[in-house]
Amino acid sequence: MKVALFVPCYIDQFYPNVGIATYQLLKKLGCDVAFPLNQTCCGQPMANSGFSATTTGCDKNFVENFKGFDYIVAPSGSCVLHIKDHLKDEQNPEEAKKIRNSIYELTEFLVDILKVTNLESTFPHRVGMHISCHGQRGLHLSSMTETMDKPFSKPEQLLMQVKGLQLLTPERPDECCGFGGTFCVFEEAVSVKMGKDRVKEHEANDVEYITAGDVSCLMHLEGILKRQNSRVKTIHIAEILNHTV
């Protein structure tokens, strides 16, 4: 299984350990992992700000870097969703289509493609799971409370396999953290209030860590936690799944 690792900008610039953990985890699970060195931004920030026409260069570069792989995996639901929904290349339309159909968010790949049921991971801590909006409502990584469908969560399914981990659920498990990309810039006060509400529910469960599949959400929550001098830390799910004693 030839897998290409896509490391989004936030991770590359601020949280490189998440990319390393993802790479190591995929290798442990038997994947032949490659990291295309010329990869850059997927174009999501521009598209979300209404400048989708300026992402042509990002699209072409993405296709050039990730063509020819069986699967593409990224530890970021929002970036994966952007590629699935928006990647195009007029010069290589078939390659772009193939990539759109073969890119996966990390937990989605582990559950749906690798069928992981027995992780050799250990993380003896109290952990709260933050469900990111793009992953839940775009990639359908977990059920939505408003639909009243049978509950499921691919990230939590994996976390339940981690030895020693105690998973605690907030009162409103699928509420937005308030990050929302450029929303946190243009609507700063609302964004911060939403983040504080998320943090408050996790702190009520006396968690040691808040985890998620999107570094952008975790960075937003981390900023609030640090400003409140909270003892709660943030950690990407890839780092937990890759953690051993």
Automatic annotation (TrEMBL):
GO terms for molecular function: oxidoreductase activity. InterPro entries: Cys_rich_dom. It comes from the Bacteria. Residues 3-84, 127-221 form the Cysteine-rich domain. Pfam families: CCG. Transmembrane segments: none annotated. GO terms for cellular component: cytosol. This is (Fe-S)-binding protein. It comes from Pedobacter changchengzhani. The lineage of its organism: Bacteria, Pseudomonadati, Bacteroidota, Sphingobacteriia, Sphingobacteriales.
